[in-house]
Each structure stands twice: as structure tokens, then as C-alpha cells.
Input
Amino acid sequence: MTSITRSRLLVQAVSRLGRAAVAQRLDVPVAILEDWLAGKSDIPDPKVLILLVLLDELLDGTGEG
Output
């Protein structure tokens, strides 16, 4: 998965839940989340998996999934 795709997934989660909630679900400080959003560092694979599960839960909850 490219870093652009990872970033887009993160942006989607943040737009739906907010930065603090996404950081909490990913078990990272908001500052790390901000670095990922700014492209200063890559989102690690284990966190991408959690992010995918989170987005899947959000979509299931809205009937979009």
C-alpha cells in the first residue's frame, strides 16, 4: 500500500471521528498522528491495519459498507 493511500485512509478517519479519537483508537499521541497527516513520517503497517478496521466499523455503522 502506498503512503498516499495510507494518508487518504487516515484523512478519512480523522474527518469522521476527529484527531483525538483516531489517535486514541490507534494508541498514539496526537502529535504522532499530526506527523502522519503532514507526511513527516509513514504510518506503520500495524497501525494501518487498525485504521482499516476502524474505517470498516464506521462504514458498517452508516450503512455505506
Summary: The CA atoms of residues 23 and 33 lie 6 Å apart.
